[in-house]
Design brief:
By secondary structure, the protein is mainly beta. It folds into two domains: 1-59; 98-421, Single-stranded right-handed beta-helix, Pectin lyase-like (Pectate Lyase C-like, 3 Solenoid), CATH 2.160.20.10. Helices cover 14% and strands 47% of the residues. The chain is built from five helices and 28 strands. The protein has a 17-stranded parallel beta sheet that branches. Strands 5-8-11-13-15-17-19-21-23-25-27 form an eleven-stranded parallel beta sheet. Helix 1 (2-24) crosses helix 3 (48-59).
Length: 428
């Protein structure tokens, strides 16, 4: 017995080292095991599968390939991901769920839930791709694809790709059949860093009911004609930072919804798309509360909007303490716009007395070109006018220098400082 234990110990130690090294480099567990086994004789190969499973838990790295994933982009690997996550979540030491490099893993809908025993890193080295078959989605809930729920201290990164395979969704009624690619619900102290997001069914990254979030170095891409493919969506969340991201989609580069407080967006490249939008807020006569939004150092290319706040008539609540600064517009249709009469409906919206109150908004150091005559639009509510709207150091010119720009105002209380071009409220 002593001799056998000693022999097994000599085998296991280098095996674990090889496994960890190969996993972190993106290799398959079976490849790592094979390297170690080759040095210790073919007589130990029969122990490979049990040693493979135990080595993952010992090293803290849980590869999809260890749980039966094929990684060929054709066969369903959802169960393998779910099992790898379950094992990692139960680990009492910091764990890594690994999506190996150089392979494509086909996924249906999946929810990866906490709380977990320790912190988890979801390391995407390869590609996660959504099933192209819409029937793979639950008929009762098609809203989400990959969901992380209730996982504190989660890190998601790795430089790999998450492909929503959204073409089949875009051809259908996306207004009704909503679907979100990568969603985070009630995940506190969350970090999402260094991923490529492609062709989501709709919203690419959604942060909901989270606190303490860092989103950085994301490349998000979908055709400019793809419907409702927002880049980053934040709602009911606080203390959120978004930085150093590039977003090229068919809808808002960043959409900021009800319940968002203390959100900082810095160094963002946006376009095509609909710009950076606070809202829409107050739809269906609902109450919305948004505050502490800081947007700094943004470049926009060919977007329909630049810095936008949009609220429905009939809503209530507030959007306040909002700063848009250091923005460069390149051929943007509506560079600066507040719209308290927003209506995204096939039928005309009925005028209603209440509105989400918009106040203490700063537009500062915004320059560049527009393709529309009205570079500044303040379309505010008659019953709840916008107030404390500051315009400072703005220079917006027509694309190609074809004439001067103008502005329109309704029910807006504003002030200006520095040079502001165009002059506020030259039209009505």
């Amino acid at each position: 017995m002593a001799s056998g234990a000693s022999e097994l110990g000599l085998f296991v130690a280098p095996l674990l080292l090889a496994l960890t090294t190969f996993l972190l480099s993106g290799a398959r567990v079976t490849d790592a095991a094979a390297v170690a086994m080759s040095s210790y004789g073919s007589g130990l190969i029969s122990r490979g599968r049990s040693l493979q499973a135990s080595s993952s838990s010992t090293s803290g790295v849980f590869s999809l390939d260890s749980y039966g994933a094929r990684g060929d982009g054709k066969r369903d690997d959802t169960q393998a991901l779910a099992e790898a996550w379950s094992a990692a979540c139960a680990s009492r030491q910091p764990a890594v769920v690994l999506v190996p490099a150089g392979r494509s893993y086909l996924l249906k809908q999946v929810t990866l839930s906490g709380p977990c025993q320790s912190s988890i890193t979801f390391m995407v080295k390869g590609t996660l791709v959504a099933s192209p078959d819409r029937s793979s989605w639950n008929e009762n809930n098609r809203r989400y694809w990959i969901v992380f729920r209730g996982v504190d201290g989660l890190t998601v990164g790795g430089g790999g790709t998450i492909d929503g395979n959204g073409e089949v969704w875009w051809m259908n009624s996306c207004k009704i059949n909503t679907a979100l690619a990568l969603s985070f619900h009630t995940c506190n102290n969350l970090r999402v860093d260094g991923l490529k997001m492609l062709n989501s069914q709709q919203i690419h990254v959604s942060v909901e009911d989270c606190t303490g979030v860092q989103v950085a170095h994301l490349s998000i891409t979908a055709p400019g004609t793809s419907p409702n493919t927002d880049g980053i969506h934040v709602t009911r969340s606080s203390n959120v930072q978004v930085r150093d991201c590039t977003v090229k989609t068919g809808d808002d580069c960043v959409s900021i919804e009800d319940g968002t407080h203390d959100l900082h967006i810095t160094r963002l490249v946006c376009g095509p798309g609909h710009g950076i939008s606070v809202g829409s807020l107050g739809d269906g006569n609902s109450r919305a509360e948004v505050s502490g939004i800081f947007v700094d150092t943004v470049q926009l290319y060919g977007t329909t909007n630049g810095a936008r706040i949009k609220t429905w008539q009939g809503g209530s609540g507030y959007a306040k303490n909002i700063v848009f600064q250091n923005m460069v517009m390149n051929s943007v249709k509506n560079p600066i716009i507040i719209d308290q009469n927003y209506c995204d409906s096939s039928k005309p919206c009925k005028a209603q007395g209440s509105a989400v109150e918009v106040s203490n908004v700063v537009f500062k150091n915004i320059k560049g070109t527009t393709i529309s005559k009205n570079a500044i639009t303040l379309n505010c509510s008659k019953n709840f006018p916008c107030y404390d709207i500051a315009l400072q150091d703005i220079n917006l010119k027509m694309e190609g220098g074809s004439g001067g720009t103008g502005s329109t105002c309704q029910n807006a209380k504003w002030r200006k400082s520095g040079i502001v071009v165009p002059q506020p409220c030259t039209g009505s």
